[in-house]
Amino acid sequence: MDGFRVRLNCIDHYQATPTRYDPHLRRDDHRLEPSKQPKVPVIRVFGSTETGQKVCAHVHGAFPYLYIEYRGPLDKPTVSEYIYALHLSIDRALAINYRRDQRREPQRFVARVTLVKGVPFYGFHVGYRYYLKIYMLNPVVMTRLADLLLQGLVMGQKFQPYEAHLQYLLQFMADYNLYGCDYLDAENVMFRAPIPDPAGPDDPPRIWDSNTILPEAITSEMSLPRASHCSIEVDICVQHISNRKAVKERQLHHDFIEREHPIPSDLKLVHSMAGLWKDETKRREKQMAKLKPKPGSSPFPQEALVAMSADPRHSQPPPWIHEEEYREEVQQLIEQENKQDRAGLTFSNYIKPDLDGDGVQTVIQSVEDLFPENLLPALGLEQKLLQVHTGIASSIQVDEKRILELEVPEQEDQLLLDDSDEDRSKKEHESRLERRFEGKKNPLGIAIPSASNKELETFPGDLQQQPQRLIAELKREIKGLHGGFGVSGLRSGKRPSIPLPRELLLEATALELTSRDANGQRAASETTGSGVLKRLPSDLENDASVKRLRCDDHREGSHQISAKPPPPELIVVADKLGPIAPLSPSEAPAPSSQPSKTTGKGSSQKPQGNQTLNFPVVKDSHDPDTILRLSQRSASQRADEGTFSGSARKQVSFDPLVSIHEAKSSSAASTSRTPVTPPPTKTLSTPPRPNIYWSGQTTMFLVNSAPPSVAEVCSTMQSYGLPDVIYQDAFYSKDDDVPPRPREYAAREYRLDGNTLPYLPDFDPTGQSPATFGVKPDVAPDLAEIELRYEKQQSLCTLRSWEIAEPPPTFAEVSGWWDEKEKRRTQKVRPGRPAPGTQTQMAELSQIVGPTPKNTHGFKYSQKQKSTSVQHEAQYMSTMSLEVHVNSKGKLLPNPEEDEVQCIFWCLRSDEQCLFGSQSDDNTITGIVVLSGDGLLAKQVRSQTSCQVDEEASELDLLVKMVEIVRTHDPDILTGYEVHGSSWGYLVERAMHKYEFDLCNEFSRMRSESFGKFGKNTDAWGSKITSNLHVTGRHIINVWRAMRGELNLLQYSMENVVWHLLHRRIPHYSWQTLTDWYLSGRPRDLSKVLRYYLKKAQMDIEIIEANELIPRTSEQARLLGVDFFSVFSRGSQFKVESIMFRIAKPENFLLVSPNRKQVGSQNALECLPLVMEPQSAFYPSPLLVLDFQSLYPSVMIAYNYCYSTCLGRVVSWRGTNKMGFTEYKRREGLLQLLKDHINIAPNGMMYTKPEIRKSLLAKMLTEILETRVMVKSGMKEDKDDKTLQKLLHNRQLALKLLANVTYGYTSASFSGRMPCSEIADSIVQTGRETLERAIAYIHSVERWGAEVVYGDTDSLFVYLKGRTREQAFDIGAEIAKEITDLNPRPVKLKFEKVYHPCVLLAKKRYVGYKYESRDQTVPEFDAKGIETVRRDGTPAEQKIEEKALKILFETADLSQVKEYFQSQCSRIMRGAVSIQDFLFAKEIKLGSYSGKGPGPPGALISTKRMLEDARAEPQYGERVPYVVVSGAPGARLIDRCVAPEDLLNDPHASLDAEYYISKNLIPPLERIFNLVGANVRAWYDEMPKVQQVRRLEMTSAAVAAGMPNNGNNNNTTAKQTLEFFLNSTSCLTCNVKMSKPTTTNDPPSPTAPLPICTRCAATPSTTMPLLRSRLSAEQRRYTDVVKVCQSCAGFAPLDVSGGGGDVPCDSRDCPVFYTRVKQRARVGVEGALLEPLLGRLGGRRGGGMEGVGEGLDW
């Protein structure tokens, strides 16, 4: 028989009586009766074969286990004796703990105990240790056993468990190399009878049937009957699973094996990743075959084969801030170890051979412990050994009293130590440092290492005399800004300037900090070459001397620190101190073309790679030290900064944009200026004077030299300190909008100008004005003074003229002109279509005007397209959806306790059905089960549908028939849109309440051992997260809750999800409407019900398929190695352990299992990621976004951080080497051996380098990241194949999430399964200092002119003021390359995108126009964290904010923003908006709110509904919509929040425009536009306020409320507002104001005055057609909307509900629904107003014309 394969679609386990397939754990087991033998665990796998046959496989021989350390002798008698005693002690302890009576019958919990050897994973350990592997009979007792062992209640000592936190099924899948939704391969299986017959002609083919299964492979024992409803049922023994043979043992850590024999880099350690490489290789080779490639060529491009392993990139990165101190501490630790005699210690002789342990099997070998060929000989040997010792049973050691007390809740008996110990240890550490550096100080008092003293020149003593006075001068305030060098231009609004006092220049001259020019004068050196670090150290006040470092950035890969003197051409000459002024073009410095020289190699110092840059620690953005990016360093680092190699010259360098000008010379009357630098290299030569002879009186001027070309000017802008581009800041295009005075906000002053003539700067021919540099003038133009000047000029003008004005046109002339214009316009438009202007006007009057949507209909998700190059492997996971119809009582929802099921609609989709074509055109099988006592209803149903129809006479038979259908089709997944309150949940609840019939177990795949359950009380977690319905052998997918996690929508009704995902509108009918149709007896109404439910059942399947939920989850299960359901239900730690365990097991690592108390005892996390406070502003220039690619995983790989490589702390914590929850005990002599192979993390933890041991986390992450790069390279190739893109995107996303959560596994401080806060701190602090180092480097390179304005964990936002977008892409790529080269591989800074322009609001909140490539011409609107992407507001808020931002980005014109905002506010106040745009929809979690105050509005609305109908309870996390309506003065907001249907049905209610504008729209706009100085609230305050006044009549109120008007008006006036009693004062025809108000609310009277003016009443022949056309237009609009709804619902033109002309659809997510309701109310109002008036006008017209001619029949 060939091998048997089954796909692991579902997996669980149960306890069963041992059979012949289970291992015999004791020699006397066969003598016991089966009922007395302890039950053993059996794993149950549900899946399918390669052709889709459903399989239930029982896997025997897998037991849960854990390890404890064994430290006794290794001779076999002693080990056997100890194991036997431990075995009995555990059994006894658990029996006592479970309150079992041992006197009646001994309880057995332990299956077997064996001796193994392995390597602890928690900390660096080399060499094997010995452990006892304890197999248990029941997985349920594992947690309790681990607690007993930890508390020392067994064998009288405490045992630390290992691998007890790993779930039983995960242990089994990892041990046997099994992956979810992948195949289990078995060499030999036994089939349970009966077996299936051969496939018929219409059936799909079968591999296993009576023809292919051998008779000896069939089990017909009574003890092994068929227990499932699957087609095939087999028994598999674990020793026959062949997947485990692919796992090869790697014995690496019992000695320093990796040092001599490292693992090959191309070896794939995770088999699921290797499978991805194989699949992608096949696909690419198939594509390459068409191109006929060269033989031997790789199917992968070069970028897909990027190695992610650690590599220094040939450049040693600078050390961490405290690394030198830590290195000295490590040296002291080594010296302490060397006090013992350890001479001759080498890698080869460090581990002593252990002959006794050679025969002990390793951890990976112990997987085969319970195989029959290993178990039976071991049982015989143990029996002989134990016969010698007869009294072993008396050695049971169990603390029975303490075990019985375990039921009492444990109290925290270990108090935290006083923090004073920590402070004391910190002071002791500081005192040790002071003693170490005592006596090693230079004349400045700076502590430096003794090795550096020889390299420093002696500082003159006079420098120490006046340091404080100089510092006070340097720190003085500059125009209100706190002092310091180089105040940011973003804060001052000007070019930076430096105040230089005379004392500084004198001291510089005295200290020889100046050079001599050609005339022998002293000159202060100003280094302006690229790469100068312009920042001052943060300890400026303590150090009297400032050393300036130069960073040579001209050589690739070299970042040495240089202190050489500047080149001769960079000399600034100054005789006397003059005023500081901006540079003229002739004075501006040119960029240095000569690279600075690196430090010489012949220095006795430490290698130059360990020099320290001035890395900043960014804190407060308003602190001057922060703006200067000054470093915060310790004393030892400040000492390091004073250390230079070679003969270093002392220098003082300043900002290149500042020059020192000479004062007036005593011998000259004019001021002479000395150029800062020679002219640019590309100088303009002066042409010779031409020989021109001229005679006459005319004067001729000759140009001295040719002007520079445009290219020359553009290329030298930066050289002269001029910006390349001056971008337009926010301005007002209308002078009336310009505020009269500056506005202060957030301690800043904003002065907004216009762009008209008065605001333009004066022309400056010298180019020295601030406007040339993009700086606004300090004083705004005085418009009043300018106006007076213009008036004076007008008064001086003597030109005057008068002419006679034309008279105004008459009314008749204006009316004729308008009629002619309308006639011409109508002739231009095609007949049958309205004019474009009319369409635009109507569109503007009905909706909020938002930004242009990305697609035509505003879909949030694009549709799936067919794939061309990817073939999905058949999953054979069939899905069945189900919907039920129940006749409800009135408006109440169906109640399973009272309302019986009338109809069941089901839909099936499966791979085997799709492959073999036994289904309908839409690839589904649908069916109906109908309750029909007389058969007439079933007959009607069959006549109206083509699907399978089954009829049953009773409800119980209906439920039984549904069970039969489920067992026949055997689906793997049961789904429904909402499976709790309807669908499967309603059936289960109805059967339980009415018939006490457990449908959960009936729907399961098992006849016995079924564990189905349903209800909130049985599974509270499932009710909130997945589903509280559990069916054995099948998965339950609650579509609503699945979409809630997949899609980002405001509401998750089925109609909204189908619209955005499937791009279809579907109707929604109330239960009352469906019940009326079902009971009406009309075939057309029954047809509506059938279509509605069948479509819903099909939509459930289509939603899942469109979202690719099942294929994506299967991919993740196969990739992560967990089962299908765990992808939904388990957290990230479980998935990390799955991959980590599969790598650790072959290397014989053992994972420790701390309990909750141990996890809580570890040190708190001390390091925080760098999250800068952004400089909140509007940035018109390009803003670069640079992101470290997978920073934390890259750091773990680059620096080899892992549990298995950690060597403990450099400095002990309270005298202990604490690591995580335990104390790490380092082996003697290990530091001495590894002293040259240690990485020190910034938080003081030591790790081995990869050449000694590559960390297990690094191996895992390397494989994950390399596979992700390969997958993403495939995405770049086939961009047009959307399905392939989605598949590859899902794969790379799963890999990315797995890589990113690996750090979280180490840092989980509360729910952690194996955390270590020290490793987490190492990762975070390394990432932080990597980011700080990048910031310092960016600021140190002057040619970029860049400023980091925001940084967040792994990303940098770099502002390039005055640069073009093309330059931004060049600089961004250059920054990314140089920062990447500065760090070891695989740490990589990636240039993500350019924002241009951009607004930074706060941390994690920014918005801008995104450009991702140079060729991109149309930007993409990208927002993070603001209201446009949040869901706690309203759609109107999102639309208005996004539109306003786009106007700002595209025009910077605040006048346009103001006009747009005011127009939208006017619409809201007029009520010309859709209610749908003003819906709030927030998640409701009933049961989690405090009872002290009112809950959120949605919860109160839901509570009111539940008071009316208990079944109306919302699901946990459901979004409940509500609106805010106007109320009485002083009414609470919570009382004005109502459901949308209440607003629609109440004609007297209206939206609260004031609330929405002032509380919902203005605050988010203020947060943005305050940053440019605009006052949005003032824009609203200056608007004319509009109060909507509506005509409310008795009849119209009834119409709007949907109530028929039967002539009794008392009911319709129950709720009347003040508007009901108002009378109209305008004519209904021409809107002319009338002298007397007309009464329109009273019943019409023949003698009452008409509500029209006298002129319209005098011309009824003109008035009546106008009124009639107006009423007809409203009715026609309503008819058009109803036609739209009819087409959506599939109704015939005359097929409307009850003949009333309306469609009963009430979908709250459809905009047409709100339009229909509003238009229906308008038709009612207009009809109530105009019909009586037309009647009276017709009667008057007819009576007056009787004597003259025939009356008109209206």
Element layout with pairings:
Elements: E1 4-7, E2 10-16, E3 40-48, E4 54-60, E5 65-69, H1 76-97, E6 110-120, E7 129-136, H2 142-150, H3 168-175, E8 183-186, E9 190-192, E10 218-219, E11 232-237, H4 257-260, H5 271-291, H6 323-338, H7 372-388, H8 400-404, H9 419-436, H10 467-474, H11 489-492, H12 502-510, E12 514-516, E13 522-524, E14 550-551, E15 561-562, E16 580-581, H13 624-627, H14 635-641, E17 659-660, H15 710-715, E18 743-745, E19 748-750, H16 783-796, H17 811-828, H18 836-846, E20 879-886, E21 901-909, H19 911-916, E22 925-931, H20 936-944, E23 948-952, H21 955-969, E24 973-976, H22 983-995, H23 999-1003, H24 1020-1024, E25 1035-1038, H25 1039-1046, H26 1054-1062, H27 1071-1080, H28 1083-1106, H29 1109-1120, H30 1124-1129, H31 1132-1144, E26 1149-1150, H32 1156-1161, E27 1177-1179, E28 1183-1188, H33 1191-1198, E29 1206-1209, E30 1218-1219, E31 1222-1223, H34 1230-1233, E32 1238-1240, E33 1245-1248, H35 1256-1277, H36 1282-1307, H37 1317-1340, E34 1347-1352, E35 1355-1359, H38 1365-1382, E36 1389-1402, E37 1405-1411, E38 1420-1424, H39 1435-1451, H40 1454-1470, E39 1480-1484, H41 1497-1508, ...
Helix pairs in contact: 5-35, 26-28, 27-28, 29-36, 31-35, 31-36, 33-35, 33-37, 35-36, 36-37, 39-40, 39-43, 45-48, 47-48
By DSSP (H or I, 4+ residues per run), the number of helices equals 48
Chain-averaged pLDDT = 77
| Alpha carbon gyration radius | 42 Å
Envelope shape: globular
CATH architecture of the domain at 4-253 and 355-407: 2-Layer Sandwich
Contiguous runs where pLDDT drops below 50 for at least 5 residues? 408-426, 435-491, 518-687, 829-845, 864-872, 914-919, 1594-1615, 1743-1754
CATH third-level topology of the domain at 4-253 and 355-407: DNA Polymerase, Chain A, domain 1
Could you tell me the strand content as a percent range? 5-15%
What would you call the structural class? Answer: alpha+beta
